[in-house]
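seq:
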Amino acid sequence: MLRTLVISLIIFVNFILQSTLFQNISIFGITPNTAIIIIVAFAIMRQELEGAIIGFFVGLLQDIFFGNVIGLTALVYMFIGFLSGKPFKEFYLENYILPIILVGVFTIFYNFLYYVTNFLFRARLDIMLYFRTIILPETIYNIAVTLPLYISLYQINKLIEKRENEKRRMF
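struct:
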């Protein structure tokens, strides 16, 4: 129950910050996509099922408020959460290189799918312009923000796990 409440609060606060405050810290019109960082972080720490569930709800929240098609971002984020948590069951969570790499890869993946669904179908075929002006800067920005955010989420997850283990010992 505590884990669900804390993760829901993190998702909600991230949504509020991403749609308001982070618009003021944009660089060349690009803001960090902290939703991908949160999804990847929890998928690494809690495996693919929880990553997919978190990804679905983060994407659904974004789709409801900002999406053209409800469910598309939810599906993509769910896929990102599942894939980023699947192969890392025996991963050393204090190793910060893997989250940075995964955030970079999945930021490119997300933006490429966004390009395909929103621009390519409208006959806007200049992928290199989109890559130079949107995908590459956002990927660099996300990579720069990943480490402090991952460390914070890791500490929160450790506190929740400590609390859950103490509760289990009581019974």
